[in-house]
Amino acid sequence: MSAQMEEWHFPAGYDQSYLPDPSSPYWFPHRETMDPEERNAAVLVRLREVMEYAYATSPFYRRKWDAEDLKPADITSFEAFEQVPVIQKEEMRAAQHEHPPFGDYLCVDESEIHHIHGTSGTTGMPTAFALGRRDWEVIADNHARILWGMGVRPGDTVFVAALFSLYLGSWGAMAGAERLRCRVLPFGAGAQGMTARAVTWLARTKPKAFYATPSYALRLAEVAAQEKIDPKDFGLEVMFFSGEPGASVPAVRDAIADAFGARVVDCGTMAEMTPFMSASATDRTPDGMLLWQDIVWHEVCDPTTFRTVPFGSEGTPVYTHLERTSQPMIRLASNDLTRWVMEDNPCGRTYPKLPDGVYGRIDDMIHIRGENVYPTEVDNFLRGVADYGGEHQIVVRRTGSMDEMIVRAECTLPSGQRDDFERRTGSGLQSLLGVRVTFESVDAHTLERAEHKSRRVVDEREHTKR
Ligand code: 8LH
């Protein structure tokens, strides 16, 4: 372990009165800019420690690793660590079913639980997340550190425009902003008429920073336009997003930056992985997301073998907590898709990077007639088309023995004048995706807008798991 790594110990605990020197771009200058090999060596020791802790405190991990004849002490190299079996969400659901409500991977006494969050449960049994009191403080510290990296400073007003419910995104952003000594405006989202009220509050309070999902920011810009308010007048400087692809999809990113006149920052892993901001861009490395490897260990892996892929390659993120004690996740499979690189970052942090962010879930990729279509490609393309109305839907269905893809997009032109729009958009999509597309236009403002995460794909094929 490097003697100079600031506050590096397990279980983690940070000096709650610490703030960096105001002139420093870094919260922890050494940890953020150190030689990555040296950092990795410290992380390897930590991985063993976290595994020892989990093995001692959780029947779930003992069962899982005993079945593979694996002991934490065996983890003496990253090659060995890559052989630790991944956790899939179904296993957590099963563990919570057997040991309600938190599963037998809760590694602290129930009296230590400070927050309970969960999945919405719209696509199956909901999963509960238990976060310890001490962990919450550490999460807040980590998020404050990452917000500092985005350029947010004590005293700044941070407007949180995401659901305050079971969703961890809003609470995690708020915890970090509070620890950073910001002024938090926990506005929320999702109630009737709330978007118009958000416009009023943004115009009145002129916050410096803003958190939401990317699709909600675009929705907000539309509602502001309807209210004859220019979102640039909110005076926002930095908008950070998580929860879905968007902030790293070039056309979406540009649309948000142009509408609000603010910097767009992408962040986010998974709720289970809170501090979920451990993948995040910074003010001087604004594109994609850096992987803050001393907070959460991020691997990008082959989706079948779960061994890491070389830098430059595509794979699926696999995450391991380095600081959580309540429900530490050790090799949680995300089933998302990304690409990682290791290069010099303009901000000086020596972390690997996901240059294109996380571009989607493996399950959401549409397999049609031998081609793979990412819904984000469609989004990116449509946002560049003149007269596009801002929302679309992708329907995949089987007609006879053929799969058919229908893209329905809003158009700002009156219905009698859309021939040219339909022709250029339909043929553009077809050549981009390499599959036949039936393209339809609908009136602007007629498709549903997301108040949270968008759901634009309707796959009607029976065999497709959604
Ligand atoms: C993303 C991104 C992103 C999440 N780019 N896809 O918001 C962060 C946490 C709280 C969250 O959304 O957790 P949740 O609800 O468990 O969803 C996780 C999934 O959301 C993740 O696996 C991705 O598919 C997606 N996601 N942040 C692209 N910045």
Automatic annotation (TrEMBL):
* InterPro entries in alphabetical order: AMP-bd_C_sf (IPR045851), AMP-dep_Lig_C (IPR028154), AMP-dep_synth/lig_dom (IPR000873), ANL_N_sf (IPR042099)
Checking Pfam families in the record gives:
AMP-binding, AMP-binding_C_2
**Source species:** Actinomycetospora succinea
Every AMP-dependent synthetase/ligase domain range: 107-315
Q: What is this protein called?
A: Phenylacetate-CoA ligase
What keywords were assigned to this record? Ligase
A GO MF label: ligase activity
Residue intervals of the AMP-dependent ligase C-terminal domain: 370-461
